[in-house]
Amino acid sequence: MLIISIYIMDKPSKSSRMLLMARVISLFRMAVRTKYCTSRIKSYVIPLLNYSVDTQSSQGGIPVSFFELLGLLGSLKGITSDAVASPCVLKLLEAGEVVKFEKGAEEVSQFAAHFISDTDQLQTCNFANFFPLSEGTPLQRAEWIKFLGAFANLETKANQVYDAVKASYNCLSQMAAKRRTSFKPIVAWMEYDKNGGVWCFTKEPHKLKFVEDAGGENIDKSINKITYNVSDPDDLEALHAILCTVDAVIDETISSYPQNYTQKTFLDNISLEDNSCFAFNQSIWRYDKRVRQGTTLDWHDGAISQPNLVLADMIEALFPTGNYTTSYFRNIAKGEGVIDISPDMCDRDASLPFVPTIPACG
Ligand SMILES: *[C@@H]1O[C@H](CO)[C@@H](O)[C@H](O)[C@H]1NC(C)=O
Ligand SMILES: *[C@@H]1O[C@H](CO)[C@@H](O)[C@H](O)[C@H]1NC(C)=O
Ligand SMILES: *[C@@H]1O[C@H](CO)[C@@H](O)[C@H](O)[C@H]1NC(C)=O
Ligand SMILES: *[C@@H]1O[C@H](CO)[C@@H](O)[C@H](O)[C@H]1NC(C)=O
Ligand SMILES: *[C@@H]1O[C@H](CO)[C@@H](O)[C@H](O)[C@H]1NC(C)=O
Ligand SMILES: *[C@@H]1O[C@H](CO)[C@@H](O)[C@H](O)[C@H]1NC(C)=O
Q: SUPFAM superfamilies given for it (predicted)?
């Protein structure tokens, strides 16, 4: 029997909206027997027999790791770019079980659903919008697994995975809060724009939340508003003054070759020859540790579905034990390099659900 679902395609902006949609899907599941497609409502035959993912617009978040956690890689049939940070998808691609296709309407129409996060494109009826980045907290982003699970009648599995990730996240965050020391390291997420020659500090809420939940403190809000032009001596002086208050830096600067992005790159771009007098001199982090072919970062995929690992990384960054191997963060102040993701790193049966990684806590 065909089961048909309906889903409102307005851009959802909050978790509650996403959950509402998932509920709409369940409600209509029994009621509707014809496939439906208007500008506001779409229907999909579920469970999906197959689907494809737009893997090109990584800045919006890629759902591949979510599908791995649900055990749905077996029905992933197409991707629009081979720049994917999942070893198992790369392996399926090599084996020809997943194909790379051009984004044309005709090519997309061969899949029961096509998942996109970049909505500035012409959409046909089988497009499904995946928007984790519209959420304000790391856990709300991870909760999008419930939305994806609904396409495969896997709501229960999705809830289980989410609950495990959430419990891990909350345990780590409580552990950080219970720390005996009252020292709260000050953290700056910062990014250099090569073209404008300016530095700015991040104000994205979920990033600031990671710092708070790890037991750190974000730099003052008034600092976030401004960009600092390194060619302007006053700006540069102000930038250095701010950095004097900072205990850890997370350098988000986009690099076309993360392998070569070192502490020297950072220091050059803040116009410092050495940082020995700065408190952050042992703690300059980037989130590009897991990278595929130079530029595709797992940060835009796996780090969204498992924010507990990012939090564990952040805690290690702020309160180093030397005992924990980070997943996404690398410390360029200690010369840590990147891990180049390749198909041979897939060491499991890709058709089975990937068990979420739960770092030690307590
Ligand atoms: C995907 O599934 C649909 C049925 O929903 C089928 O018609 C189509 O041929 C399948 N496409 C691929 C590429 O497997
Ligand atoms: C930064 O300053 C330089 C030199 O004054 C100027 O050419 C450049 O346009 C400035 N950048 C921005 C983004 O204002
Ligand atoms: C990266 O660094 C290596 C060694 O310094 C150099 O040979 C190579 O050209 C650099 N690559 C890029 C893309 O900058
Ligand atoms: C930023 O760092 C890179 C690599 O060291 C360097 O090529 C570039 O000139 C630097 N930019 C500035 C404005 O210092
Ligand atoms: C790092 O900075 C501190 C001052 O904040 C200084 O005491 C220490 O020697 C510096 N360490 C290195 C390796 O530069
Ligand atoms: C390192 O890990 C071990 C085992 O997980 C633990 O017993 C030990 O206390 C840890 N050391 C530090 C410094 O956290």
A: Helical backbone' metal receptor
State the pTM of this model. Answer: 0.91
Measured from the alpha carbon of residue 337, the closest ligand is 3
CA distance 59 to 134: 12
Q: What is the mean pLDDT of the chain?
A: 88
- Please tell me the number of the ligand nearest to residue 232's CA: 2
pLDDT confidence band for 223 (50 / 70 / 90)? confident
Probe target for ligand 3 pocket from 254, 255, 260, 340, with the most ligand atoms within 8 Å of CB: 260
96 pLDDT above the threshold of 90: yes
The span from the CA of 20 to the CA of 26, in Å, is 10
CA torsion 258-114-76-328 (nearest 10°) is 30
Give 3-168's CATH code, choosing from 3.40.309.10, 3.40.50.1980, 3.40.640.10, 1.20.1420.30.
Answer: 3.40.50.1980
Across residues 295-324, what is the average pLDDT?
95
Q: What is the whole-number distance in angstroms between the Cα of residue 195 and the centre of ligand 2?
A: 9
**155/26: higher pLDDT:** 155
92 is written with which tokens?
A: 């399926």
Q: Which protein residue has the closest C-alpha to ligand 5 atom 5?
A: 279
Task: Using most ligand atoms within 8 A of CB, pick from 45, 49, 98 the residue to mutate for ligand 1.
Answer: 49
Nearest partner of 70 among 150, 149, 141, judged by Cα: 149
